[in-house]
């Protein structure tokens, strides 16, 4: 069985989950730092989801996870270590590691195109 080279389903589910959590946070009046974290996560995952069809470069998912993981770590350091923030931060860190390993593996198996080749 060939591995799936497109993480489309996971990205689409992640974008939908981030959007749902954002709506929940707004509806229940959660603190502004948490709202900022969730809105940022929703926007970043929506960009990734919109590019699923266009075969976005795999490094984008690494960058996305790193940015959101650092945002979550910042919230934890500032004292907003709610279970939701801790869970999302851990999820973003784990997905960043997963996509980094996938990107590294893909770079080793696919040689870069030669410069000047047409």
Short description:
73% of the residues lie in helices and 0% in strands. By secondary structure, it is mainly α. The chain crosses the membrane at residues 35-53, 60-78.
Topology:
Blueprint: H1 8-27, H2 32-50, H3 58-77, H4 83-109
Transmembrane segments: 35-53, 60-78
Keywords: Membrane, Transmembrane, Transmembrane helix
Throw out a few tags for this protein.
118 residues, mainly alpha, 4 helices, elongated, transmembrane helix, membrane, transmembrane
Structure description:
The model has no long low-confidence stretch (mean pLDDT 79). The protein has four helices and no strands. Helix 1 runs antiparallel to helix 2, helix 2 (32-50) packs antiparallel against helix 3 and helix 3 (58-77) runs antiparallel to helix 4. The longest helix has 27 residues, at 83-109. It is elongated, with a radius of gyration of 16 Å. It has helices at 8-27, 32-50, 58-77, 83-109. It is an all-alpha fold and 118 residues long.
